[in-house]
Amino acid sequence: MSWTRRAWLRSISVTALAVASRDLAAHIGTGPVDPLVAAPDIWVLDSTGQRRRLPELLRGKATAVQTMFTGCSSVCPLQGAMFGAVQEGLDRNSGRRPKRLLSLSIDPLGDTPQSMQEWLRKMNAGPKWAGAIPVSDARDVRSALAGSPPDANLDRHTTQVYFFNAAAQLCWRSPSLPEPADVINVLDHLANT
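Structure for Protein SCO1/2, as requested:
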């Protein structure tokens, strides 16, 4: 098949538009959250099985939150590896407030405290990295974090990181799969404000 100049230019234009649209969509809902959003007041089970309110779990620390589920075999292991790299850098810079990582399950029907413990163990999570599972439907928390209605399909969840200040307020959303250094920088900033 021979390509005419017009067909070739049309193909290039369609490809460029698709890439630009994907990149634009990837950055919508990133950066500072204004006004700040209170953490959803939901019950969660931590990885030890203790029932707690999510704001209580977040309060008093600068916290980076990722959404995941323990049965995920696509992006969740990548997110875990990224938090593993972040964990290594948490102690390099101190702040006025402690820093913490939280893996928040979006599959309350499939995840248990035991499966969360196992997932954290596989990711080599240390004492500053916790896990929690919503007691009921995770759609509300996903919606609050993303700032929009979530996709109903668990496998298509976001790979953003959500940052909470010590008052348990959402104040920053990262782009998809952020660099560990960027996560550390935002946490350092929040720990000093």
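Helices lie at 5-27, 54-58, 76-89, 113-122, 139-146, 180-191.
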